[in-house]
Amino acid sequence: MIMTPDQIVEQALALPLDARKKLAEKLLASLGHEDWAEVDPSLAEEAERRIDALDRGEDRSHPAADVIKDLLARVKDGR
């Protein structure tokens, strides 16, 4: 059975942090940009800072569905 992109994302988000990082790196590499720092160095630095904060337990991630739900509610309420 072939999975939909949404099903793949759902399963990927259930992976441990290290596995998600490796998967993200492989997906980005498949787009033809081996070194994303060349695309935008400040974006690469910010991504690394956030990954390090997650690894140290100083920050936490939120499920994408929750973030989207919150953003839609804010837009609807005019916030």
Overall description:
It is a single chain. The protein has a domain at 25-77. The protein has helices at residues 5-13, 17-30, 41-56, 64-77. The chain has 79 residues and is an all-alpha fold. Helices cover 67% and strands 0% of the residues. It is globular, with a radius of gyration of 15 Å. The chain contains 4 helices and no strands.
Give a quick set of tags describing it.
79 residues; mainly alpha; 4 helices; globular; single chain
Separation, N- and C-terminal Cα atoms: 42 Å
Percent helix: 55-70%
Instruction: Give a quick account of the main beta sheet: strands, pairing sense, barrel closure.
Output: none
Structural class estimated from helices and strands: mainly alpha
Rough outline:
globular
Radius of gyration: 15 Å
Regions with pLDDT < 50 over 5+ consecutive residues? none
Strand content: under 5%
Q: Helix segment count?
A: 4
Q: Average pLDDT, to the nearest integer?
A: 85
Number of strands: 0
